[in-house]
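Field log, afternoon session.

UNIT: design team B
ACTIVITY: writing a sequence onto a fixed backbone
BACKBONE:
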């Protein structure tokens, strides 16, 4: 028995819900396809499908086998693409997932450059602050802020992702400039909301962490809207240096500096990471994108350091 062919027949039956439709898709007689699937079940010692005159349904163990085989066939197709694409022109659909703020301000302008260099690559870009699992979500490259991930993927650190406090000159004139981190408890706060909740204002004093978050006047996962409210003098904002760069350069916002630096987490090793699966780097379109983005985003990170 050609087990791989039998598995493909089985999956097609599940997807179409019919032996006849599945057989038509492969251009083989329904009896031949049905016999192959029956041989597969016999070799496994399990009934994968419930058959009736009208419908075909998966059994409980059939569900498990179907999900497993889908993953295996996906990996096989991926390996075949790697072999076929090796040392060829970068082309095809490239799926990229990136956090929203970073995507708007840094990634999307770079991808315009990338498209000029590699016109045969079709970019499929999703901006979301929800975490993506590369294998499960069919993502070639992900860009995420936070800590080095535990996933079985390669993670390249692109730049620091530390947060800094800022306020507009108008706000400071009206409410006063806080002289210490503890004084922030008396100030109006604009808070960025992550999937795990609003980011707090934290500082470490004498080896003890303190939450110095002031009363909230606005909470959102839209960084541009929060920055606009900060420019309007509505509160103090904690955000990343790369996100605030243009506002700091124009003077619309100014960085607040204290003896004890602020953070949004007790883990001080926050960064922006580019993630991809090791075997996918052999695919020309992925290699081209990884190499280009790593170089250009690191250049952007160096520019941000110069604005400090």
């Amino acid at each position: 028995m050609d087990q791989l062919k039998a598995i493909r027949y089985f999956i097609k039956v599940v997807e179409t819900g019919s032996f006849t439709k599945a057989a038509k898709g492969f251009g083989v007689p329904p009896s031949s396809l049905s016999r192959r699937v029956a041989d597969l079940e016999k070799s496994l010692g399990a009934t994968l499908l419930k058959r009736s005159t009208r419908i075909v349904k998966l059994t409980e163990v059939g569900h498990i086998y179907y999900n497993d085989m889908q993953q295996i066939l996906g990996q096989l197709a991926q390996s075949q693409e790697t072999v076929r694409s090796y040392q060829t022109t970068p082309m095809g659909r490239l799926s990229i997932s990136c956090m929203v703020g970073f995507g708007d301000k840094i990634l999307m302008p770079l991808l315009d450059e990338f498209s000029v260099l590699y016109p045969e690559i079709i970019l499929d870009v999703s901006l979301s602050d929800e975490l993506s699992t590369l294998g499960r979500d069919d993502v070639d490259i992900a860009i995420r802020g936070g800590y080095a991930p535990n996933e079985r993927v390669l993670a390249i650190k692109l730049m620091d992702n530390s947060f800094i406090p800022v306020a507009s000159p108008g706000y400071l004139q009206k409410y006063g400039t806080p002289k210490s981190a503890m004084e922030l408890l008396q100030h109006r706060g604009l808070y960025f909301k992550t999937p795990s909740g609003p980011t707090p204002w934290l500082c470490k004093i004498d080896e003890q962490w303190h939450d110095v978050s002031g009363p909230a006047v606005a909470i959102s996962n839209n960084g541009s809207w929060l920055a606009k409210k900060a420019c309007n003098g509505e509160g103090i904002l904690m955000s990343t240096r790369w996100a605030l760069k243009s506002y700091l350069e124009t003077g619309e916002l100014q960085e607040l500096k204290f003896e004890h630096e602020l953070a949004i987490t007790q883990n001080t090793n926050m960064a922006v990471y580019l993630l991809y699966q090791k075997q996918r780097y052999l695919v020309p379109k992925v290699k081209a994108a990884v190499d280009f983005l790593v170089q250009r985003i690191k250049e952007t990170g160096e520019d941000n350091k110069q604005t400090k």
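LOG NOTE: The first strand starts at residue 49 and ends at 51.
NEXT ACTIVITY: expression trials, pending approval
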